[in-house]
Structure formats: structure tokens, C-alpha cells
Amino acid sequence: MSTNPAPNAPAALWKTCLDIENQDAGHYLENVNRPLIELIDGAPRRVLELGCAAGHFGAVLKERFPGVSVVGVDANRAAADAAAKRLDRVICARLEELDFTAHGLAEHAFDAVIAADILEHLVNPWRLLERLRTLLAPGGQLLASIPNVRNLTLVSDVLQAGRWAYQPQGLLDITHLRFFTLAEMRRMFAETGYQPEKFGAVISRGLNETYGQHRNAQSATIQLGRLTLSGVTPSELLELCAEQFLFRCRPVETSAPRP
Asked: What does pTM read for this prediction?
């Protein structure tokens, strides 16, 4: 029996989506995470955007905050070239290999650091978050969006169908290396020296009806196929229906050791 794919079958994702540096720029969506922009406190003057892709998010920042300077970082060459036409400066490099000093990223240089859907792509996001604290100016803010692995659709697929199907984008983007629940997101920030001060969620399109139907119930029963969850609280409902969570964080001030 032949195991070769049909002539017109799409190429396997691992063959087309894992060459991060050389991916076609068209792979990057033009969608901008506007709810994350709404979490920004004040009008930043100097912003570092991690995983800037083709620069659409940074371009909206520049429209929203006239005079802001946006430095982007992305490992994909084609995306970095496109972003360079929209942002003030773009560094083409892998984040975990980025030498801040060599690229002129000085301590306390940025009012805001944007980490929109990027931490989950890293081997060690904890270490990067620690390093980023040195780049934030006093009173600076970290804005992050992170996919939610406790999403009801994802959990249902695992439990009922045994599927954990990687995709080109979304919750199971094949380039994701780390997976977080809301509790683990908060734990990551706490362990790396940040205090979340503002929080938001983006509800999955496919779960909008479920969320709207039960959001005012103190204890809900939710059924999805053969999966039934009872006694679901409002906070649990939010976690089950969220596609991603959004945070505005500040570095925790540490007291100098006593002599």
C-alpha cells in the first residue's frame, strides 16, 4: 500500500511553517490586537515590540500615539523587511539570542514593551521576561497577550476526539512551544518579577454564544458534545471561553539589601 500523499494534498505543516527565518511574509496576518492596545497606560514615547511580524501593530501604535518611536524585533527576514517600512527601527533576530547591548537596546530605554502572542513561541520565556525588566524605564509597562490552553473547544477536542491538531495560526499554532492556563500565566509573571495590574480576555468566536448564554449565571451547566461541565462559576466560564488573555504588568520594585 502506498503511503505517498495524494498529488493535490497540502504539504504537512511541519514542512511549511517551521522555517521561521525564511517564512514568506504573507504568512503573517494583518490583524491587530486592538484590545491589547486599549490596555496601554498613558501615551508611551519609546516602545519595544517583540515579534513585530510585518509591523501592523506598531503602525497602529504610531497612529494612536503621535510621536511615539517603535523598535520592532522579528526573526523572519521577509516580515522584518516589511516592518522596517512601518516602524522606526527593526532588528531581525531570534529573541532568545538577542544581545541587547550589541543592538543598542539600553537599560531603561523603553516606556513600554509589547509581547503580543510571542512568549508561547519561546523555549524559555521566563528568562526573556527577566531580561526585559532591565530595558523598562521607571514606571514602564509590559503588555502581553498569551493563548489560553484551557479553552473549551481545545479541551473538548482532546477529551472527546483525541485530537491535538496543530494549525498554521491560532491556539495550536505549530510554532508554539509553551502552553499556559491563566493560573500559569500569572505564575510566570510573578516568578519573573512582574505584577499584573490590568487584565483582559478575548473570547473565541466559536464560544461567543456559550459565553453570552451563561455569563450571568452563578453556577452554569455547559454541554459540548458528550462533555458536560456542571457548577461552572463566572470566572471558570471566562477561562473556558477565552482564546487569549491580555495583561498590563509593571516590574516589581525590589528593595536594596541592607548593609
From this structure: 0.91
